[in-house]
Amino acid sequence: MNIRIGTDIIEISRIKKTIEDTDNKFIERIYTNKEIEYCESRKSQKYQHYAVRFAGKEAVFKAISSMLKNKFEIDWKDIEILNDSSGRPYVNILKSKISDKINIDISLSHCKEYAVANVIAYIEMDVD
């Protein structure tokens, strides 16, 4: 088993500007329907939730990038970040070829200006 980590931080204003400048095309390219539904339900704080999920996806990419080189391809929407009934975030890897080989723990946080995500990935395969 290989253990990898990934961290990302982003300015919430950057995500908000990108969403507004692309007339929501950014949202459609990056987020799953369930993620969009969740973020939109947060009303005035929706940009914080979009930003923290973007940071989460970046952190996942960083953690699993060593297993992706020339073996698997993964898209933004193949990484889905949701919350369980108690509000704890979790990651679904929707790409079936690797979803059964990875277990991911994620921590998300945001304030008025920044969103940050930390990931620990437990990879059950050789990454070399």
Category from helices, strands and their pairing:
alpha+beta
CATH architectural type: Alpha-Beta Complex
The proportion of residues in beta strands is: 25-35%
The best one-word shape is globular
Taken in chain order, the helices and strands follow as: EHHHHEEHEE
- Compute the number of structural domains: 1
- The CATH topology assignment is Ribosomal Protein L22, Chain A
Number of strands: 5
The spatial strand order of the largest sheet comes to 1-5-4
- The CATH homologous superfamily is termed 4'-phosphopantetheinyl transferase domain
The CA-CA distance between the termini, in Å, is: 12 Å
The percent range for helix content is 40-55%
Structure description:
The chain has 128 residues and is of the alpha+beta class. The chain has a single domain, classed as Ribosomal Protein L22, Chain A (Alpha-Beta Complex), CATH 3.90.470.20. It contains five helices and five strands; from the N terminus they run βααααββαββ. Helix 1 crosses helix 4 and helix 3 runs antiparallel to helix 4. The longest helix is centred in the middle third of the chain and has 23 residues. The chain starts with a strand and ends in a 5-residue tail after the last strand.
